[in-house]
Specification:
The chain is an alpha/beta fold. The chain folds into 2 domains: 157 residues, Aspartate Aminotransferase, domain 1; 257 residues, Aspartate Aminotransferase, domain 2 (3-Layer(aba) Sandwich), CATH 3.40.640.10. Helix content is 36%, strand content 17%. The strands form 4 sheets. It has a 7-stranded mixed sheet, with helices on both faces. Strands 1-2-3-15 form a 4-stranded mixed sheet. Helix 6 links the parallel strand 5 and strand 6. The longest helix has 18 residues. It is globular, with a radius of gyration of 22 Å.
Length: 425
């Protein structure tokens, strides 16, 4: 008998965030359309996590596929150093039209981690260009996650992902999302801080932790008062996930740098962008070539990715995707309402199109590696209709904007069933 796809996979593939000694059999997916995935065993699962928070409009959206095919036939790829093309310029124009001030330039890269790397390097080097190289410290939020490249790891919470890399990471101070904590850190590090990076409104990998719109306003005010750069990582929160086009919009603030990826192309093509203020861009303008921004990627400004992103933005405007996601979140929350009365539930929360249920956990094993998280993972994998993937003790859903009210109810009901089956600590 021929080996199955998971059996062949086991021989040759190494998967992200996977302990292969425990997770020995990946789910084999052979197709996807709308919100549904088709598995090799003939079953279907509703993609309630938008394929790692990326899929915005649904799988196999015809407009996105048409844009991809048309652009591939005209111009598939050209380096972006010293060259340009219509899709990249038009996408930059449209992103800056919808982005908050003072953002004025777009630097393209490949994914969320690289968008963050660009932001960190540009922020620090701006200080170097100004003659203040001692500003080597960044501030970030407790529980932060900004990606897996070295700069992104440095501004993330060390445990459980990055602690072993600490000898290689630069100095970062983590603070809770309060104005007082941010003020105190800046006072302690006067003259040494390059910038403050944060995920506005929702900290994804931390377990869908939410913070207030007021904190966003406080962060902007405090960074202005201390003359440091505010960096918004909207890789996950952008393009409607929190119920507004960008999470920063809800506070009426504009960051000095903003990182975008995931939903930028509707989640079907790798492309990222770092938007920066004119102030930062101007710091690299000089008659000396050595003062340019020496950063780039082979596929920066990829023509096909830019064309798909333009098609995604067109859908977003036509369908008012932020409003659709807000409705989806409300419908899932309604289905989840009984969970609030369960003894094993610590909290049910929602922001835009994201719902999360946090469970009580054994105090000896907290966080991402908590025992209840492992129990949840096994239960989610076995669910016959809905694809969910918990973050430790937090079960969440963030589906694409194409899900119907009936499908929202299916997601919420599945989450409720999975939570009810868990022990009460």
């Amino acid at each position: 008998m021929a080996p199955t796809l998971p059996e062949r996979d086991r021989e040759v593939c190494w998967h992200p965030y996977t302990q292969h000694a425990l997770d020995t059999e990946p789910l084999a997916v052979i197709g996807a359309k709308g919100a549904w995935l088709e598995l090799a065993d003939g079953t279907q699962r509703l993609d309630a996590i938008a394929s790692w928070w990326a899929n915005l409009h649904g799988h196999a959206r015809p407009e996105l596929l048409a844009a991809m095919h048309a652009q591939a036939a005209q111009l598939d790829h050209i380096l972006f150093a010293g060259f340009t093309h219509e899709p990249a310029v038009l996408l930059a124009e449209q992103l800056l039209e919808i982005a908050p001030a003072p953002l004025s330039k777009v630097f393209y890269s490949d994914n969320g981690s690289t968008a963050v790397e660009v932001a960190l390097k540009a922020a620090y080097q701006t200080w170097v260009r100004r003659g203040e190289p001692a500003r080597t410290v960044f501030l970030a939020l407790e529980g932060a996650y900004h990606g897996d490249t070295f700069g992104a790891m440095a501004v993330g919470e060390p445990k459980p992902f990055f602690a072993e890399f600490s000898p290689f990471l630069f100095h970062v101070v983590l603070v809770p999302p309060t104005a007082a904590a941010l003020e105190e850190a800046l006072a302690d590090l006067a003259g040494r801080v390059a910038g403050f990076i944060f995920e506005p409104l929702v900290q994804g990998a931390a377990g869908m932790r939410f913070h207030s719109v007021d904190f966003l306003r406080d962060a902007r005010r405090i960074c202005d008062a201390h003359n440091i750069f505010l960096i918004a990582d909207e890789v996950m929160t952008g393009f409607g996930r929190t119920g507004s086009l960008f999470a920063c919009d809800q506070a009426g603030i504009g960051p000095d740098l903003m990182c975008l990826a995931k939903g930028l192309t509707g989640g079907i093509f790798p492309l990222a962008a770092t938007l920066v203020s004119e102030e930062i861009y101007a710091a690299f303008l000089a008659e000396e070539r050595a003062k340019a921004f020496f950063h780039g990627h082979t596929f920066s400004g990829h023509p096909i990715g830019c064309a798909v992103a333009l098609a995604s933005l067109k859908i977003l405007r036509a369908e008012n995707t932020p409003r659709k996601l807000q409705h989806i979140g409300h419908e899932m929350e309604r289905a989840l309402a009984p969970a609030r009365a369960l003894p094993q539930v610590k909290e049910v929360r929602r922001c835009g199109g994201i719902v999360a249920v946090e469970l009580h956990q054994n105090t000896l094993e907290n966080g991402y590696l908590a025992a209840v998280g492992e129990s949840l993972r096994k239960a989610c994998r076995a669910h016959p209709r809905v694809l969910l993937r918990p973050l430790g003790p937090v079960l969440y859903a963030m589906p694409p904007s194409c899900v119907t009210d009936e499908e929202c109810h299916l997601i919420g009901t599945a989450m409720l069933e999975l939570v009810e089956a868990q022990p009460d600590f």
